[in-house]
Amino acid sequence: MKKHFILPALLCLLCLPQFIRAQSKIKAAVNFTYQPNPDEDQYNPRLPHKSIAVGPDAFVTLNHSTGGKYTLTKYTTELKQLWSAGIPLAPEETVEAFAANLTDALVVTRQLQGQNQVLQGYRINLKTGQHEQPVQLLQAPAKGRRAGVAISSDGSKVLAFRYLTDNSFRIQQISGTLYTGSLQAEQDVMYNLRDVAGILTADIQLANTGEQYLSLISDEMNRLTVRKYSPGSKQAKVMSVLVGGVFDGQKVYIRDTRFKLMDNGLLYGAVLTAEEKGGAYHSLKAVKYDFENEDMVFAEEFRFSPDYVRQVNALDKSSNTKLHDIYLTDLFLTPEQRLVLVAEQKYTEGGDNAPYVAKELHLFAYDRYMNHDWSSVLMKQQQAPASEGFSGISYSPNLQGNTLSLLTLETLSGKYDLYFRQIDTATGKATAPQSLNLGIPAGKNLAYLKAYTTWLTEKDIIAVIRSGKKDTGLQLSRIQIK
């Protein structure tokens, strides 16, 4: 069993304030008009990605403008605009999802109509920018839980669903309709979950072939259950495990979860647990679900030991004595089937107008057999005003082969800029942060819109930034790193 715990060496390396000035070039740039949506959740945005690559030489963006309107625009990678299509929204209508497939861009909205909430789907032709009248995907009582939508990674399947809950808002049933990427109804679905006690949260992953994976947290935040439903079948394959409980005399419960259906057809999950007394983080648990072979493969539990906490706090020069506000943010699977998990520290400093903060990244890697391979912590210092939330801070990732690249907006050694890092997923070793030397002006104006970042290659990036000695406004830019 191969294991190497490289935390001490990497912690010292990654906390150094020094950076490298990278050679980068803005190959093309066009003006970009941005109007923040006051109804958008700045802490948990529903649209983490507002730019999608559509083929090798084009991408589409979804941008909010005044009057409750969203505009979908297609560009070439040389930033030539091919078409622009407006999607007018009614009052209190919000965009819930944005995706694309081979022929269309898909936008799903939610609107309150009397006593009901309604999900509608817009299908915009990628060649012409034309769209027809929206398709009503789902109607559900407005008093219930917020209706949801899941879209497969290739945009060929769409699932619109609603919850049936008891008086305590615990989930008892989920029902909805499965659609094709052209928004044609394929199948009504219904998941009877009354045999699972106390479901508070449910995550749905939708495969390109239509399989639905339900990940349920139940038994007072102690049990993790995953059910797989195949198209045309009402029977589910079920895998369940008790994650919380009493360990080493400590009552432990599930604090956070993250699931992802990978390109190899397998579902992977990660769970952060915390101690009931005091709320300290207890451990990280990862699992691979192989429904074909009816097997759950568990990784070795990673304990957040006192020594681990001391080292992290020492790097941050903090007086805190425990980890806080750590959330699972990403799961990646490399060509060698190595699983890489990322957890980020992010929080607000308290109060209605308090700044938003994004700091350390915790990385964990497991080999194809789910043996723990390496772990590291990457330190960063990011802060934004409440009006911006996490729109410009946190990180934008990209996995190419065995290299995980990260793009961040930071101030390091007094230099405010976009910074570029690369992590070798085979070893965990990371490059020092490289300043792209874009001349981003420090000030009160929004400097970077993370959701519009599109990775063409690991060193060829589309991004919305504010650059130059004179503040000429936001620009959609193509940045090449040498």
Summary, kept brief:
The protein is mainly β and 482 residues long. The protein has two helices and 36 strands.
Question: What is this structure's SSE topology?
Answer:
Elements: H1 7-14, E1 20-21, E2 24-31, E3 51-53, E4 58-65, E5 69-76, E6 81-88, E7 94-100, E8 104-113, E9 116-125, E10 135-141, E11 148-151, E12 157-165, E13 171-180, E14 185-192, E15 201-206, E16 212-218, E17 223-229, E18 236-242, E19 245-247, E20 250-261, E21 267-275, E22 281-290, E23 295-298, E24 302-303, H2 306-315, E25 326-333, E26 339-348, E27 356-366, E28 372-378, E29 382-384, E30 396-400, E31 403-412, E32 415-424, E33 434-435, E34 448-457, E35 460-465, E36 475-481
Parallel strand pairs: 1-33
Antiparallel strand pairs: 2-36, 3-4, 4-5, 5-6, 7-8, 8-9, 9-10, 11-12, 12-13, 13-14, 15-16, 16-17, 17-18, 19-20, 20-21, 21-22, 22-23, 22-24, 25-26, 26-27, 27-28, 27-29, 30-31, 31-32, 32-33, 34-35, 35-36
